[in-house]
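Handout for the seminar on molecular recognition.
Each group receives one record of this type.
Step one: identify the two inputs.
Step two: read the structure output and locate the region that could contact zinc ion.
Step three: write two sentences on what you found, then compare them with the reference statements printed after the record.
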Amino acid sequence: MKIGKEDFEALIKGEKDISSYIELDTVAGTYSVFGVRTASNPNYLIKAIYEMNEAHLNKKLAVKAVRKLFRSVGLGSLGLFNLLKKSGMDLPPAEFLLLVFKLQHQQGWGAPFELVEQSDKRIVLRTKHTFESEILKDWKMPVCGVHMGWIEGVLMAVTGKTWYCLERKCVANGDDCCEFVADQVEPSWKFKAQAVVKGDSAITEFIEHKPVKGTIKLIDDPVVIMPRFVFSSMMNSLKKTMGELPAGGVNYRAYMDMGKENIEHYKKMGITEPKTLSDMAFTFYSQMGWFRLVKDEWNEEKKEKTITLDNTVESEAFGSTGKNVCYCTAGLLAGIIEGSFGIKVQAREIKCHSKGDEFCVFTISNKAE
Ligand SMILES: [Zn+2]
Ligand SMILES: [Zn+2]
């Protein structure tokens, strides 16, 4: 089927609809709409995508993961945009967005949007409901990650800039419509890191893994994947050369310096508030697989902080040993606190999973000069 400028113009004006462009060949098993192969009933697929992400994230983060996936779908609209441009139709971003969703909606996918507000830096769109808000109605929260990502992708494709879309009203959250606010943003490290600390994003959203090239980046910072047994291997090697206690001390010191350096890096990136600095470090190390923070308590009388962790990297690497093993983790905690609050502290592991305790528990107290 040949599709030209007149077809797009007729569709935009509403003189024609997509039904004239549907080709269904049941023998060949192909279904094309507007010259593009498609398929019917995406409900099962959409539900599966949300549930697959929810299985290892929470609901809120699953919505964000779906948003990331559909950003790529939106980026694919560049082909259509260029085709229109070539045929002499140079639509502004918001109008192109409306056209994309009109085409999709008539095929049973995207929502028919109404433009609420538009400027160079902000576009607000509204619809009665989206298909994912119906499919995921029982989540009772803003769920339209498909549309958020799709909008971001389309806008990125046609403007070459970064857009961030939020859903401020959602039918699945009990509102009378789904309303999306897309803002053109500068994609800074700070912006992304804060989203992770607030729980609006998981670090997986910002991992750029190029296995073939041999590189991994986490929010623009190079990182590596390390096997967990590095910790037992390193400790055993140090033990052989200098004995167990000094080896623990060396590890403690090395990881304390690393924790402090890590905080310095956050400071260079524009984070200044001490509590945010330490929360950021705890969130990142936790999401990178170093430990899970169970609780964090403060004893005013003793001026002592107690941090309870589960799955510390060392206790998992060593397994059951009958004694405390988390020297690196203790050092790391001390370094994070020292770097964030600008004080001198001493971290001690008072309970350890490897010793047989339920959790690894650390006390952090001011270091006597
Ligand atoms: Zn919604
Ligand atoms: Zn431990």
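Reference statements: The chain has three domains: 42-187, 192-225, 230-366. The CA atoms of residues 307 and 325 lie 16 Å apart.
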